[in-house]
Amino acid sequence: MKKIVVIGGGFAGLNLAKKLTNNKHYDVTVVDINNYHFFPPLLYQVSTAFIEASNISYPYRKLFQKRKNIRFYMGSLLKVNPDLKTIELDTGELNYDYLVLAMGTETNFFGNQNIIDNALPMKTIDDALKIRNHILLCMERAVRAKSLSEKVRLANIVIAGGGPTGVEMGGMLAEMARNIGKKDYPESASNVGNIYLIDNGDTLLGPMSTKAQTEAYNVLNKLGVKIQLNTMVKDYVDGEVLLSSGKKITTATVIWATGVIGKEVVGLPAETITRGRRILVDEINRVTGFDAIFSIGDQCFQTSDKNYPTGHPQLAQVALQQGTLLAANFNRIAENNATVPFSYSDKGSMAIISKYRAVVDLPKVFFSGFFAWLVWLFIHILPLVGFGNKLKLAFNWTWSFFTNDPTLRLIIRRGKND
Length: 418
Fold this sequence. Notes:
Layout: E1 2-7, H1 11-19, E2 26-32, E3 36-38, H2 43-47, E4 57-59, H3 60-63, E5 70-74, E6 77-81, E7 86-89, E8 92-95, E9 98-101, E10 105-107, H4 113-118, E11 120-121, H5 125-144, H6 148-155, E12 157-160, H7 164-179, H8 181-184, E13 195-198, H9 210-222, E14 226-228, E15 233-237, E16 240-243, E17 248-250, E18 254-256, E19 260-262, E20 273-274, E21 278-281, E22 293-295, E23 300-302, H10 316-334, E24 349-354, E25 357-361, E26 366-369, H11 370-381, H12 387-403
Parallel strand pairs: 1-2, 1-9, 2-5, 9-22, 11-18, 12-13, 12-18, 13-14, 21-23
Antiparallel strand pairs: 3-4, 6-7, 7-8, 10-19, 15-16, 16-17, 20-21, 24-25, 25-26
Helix pairs in contact: 1-10, 5-6
């Protein structure tokens, strides 16, 4: 049996591994820095204390218990050695017959050291928990603050990025302020802070339809979110966000939801890497210049699809479909059959804006409001790994939405002065 090593257990890598379950041709090893798979579209609900991290996470080893040819190896990739067909990890070394790079992306801070040091990204479970902890600590500090200016600084929240993550985060924080703030913090009954949503483009939800963009703007504006378009966050210095417009916002919280860049892979030649640090691949997701190295998901850049000559969008559906097809092509390779080129089937996009409000863009249909919100819930529960996770999430969601009072507002990591 040939050895396939998959680096990254996200949508692309995990789907590939699952499709190769009990395959007679291949032994598969999934490598990931974490020992669990998680569902990124719901990270913002973890960061706002609406659902627990365990609701959207599942251990790899439990997932692979009954999959005889699949193993898990915990580690972080340090280097690829194509000539030796080995990879170096911070926890050891593995050899491979085929290597699949499915590590996804990381936050792009565009080289701004102040943003790197002080802003809060949201790409991992740890990021989401840090945001939750930080926001709750700021609320406690605001209650104790002696001056109005300090209360405002601690209560203000700036979200950089008006894509789905920024919009969903802004809506959820606004709902928290409306439904929870006065109940939990009666000492500061007057709302002194604001939620700012800053985007460099001229619309929110840039990749979606005009109707979705308009709906998002109107709903968030009605919730009191301060939206500033055609504006860029240039820096964050001494507790002040500096905008391209010249304005400044005093705040203790900057959530960075703008821009991603592919995870770095040491050992690949420079000519295989293109814009956004994505890896160039051919029509079957094979890395340019290599026979035994593949890349799928957000990390790869493919131009062979006639409908996407400038590359595919970095969406979960692309990753899932590439994982499925690559598994099928591995079988074709093992049986000496012709491989099939990848062609992305666009199934639409969606974003939740606030409680009972969402937008859904299908290839030929747009709808919004409560029904779109229900569709959003249904679509986002289905892909969760583990039947128990689906039940827990459905119950927690239902209870939290009806009561407007989830019970997860726990400060786990206190600061030195708190």
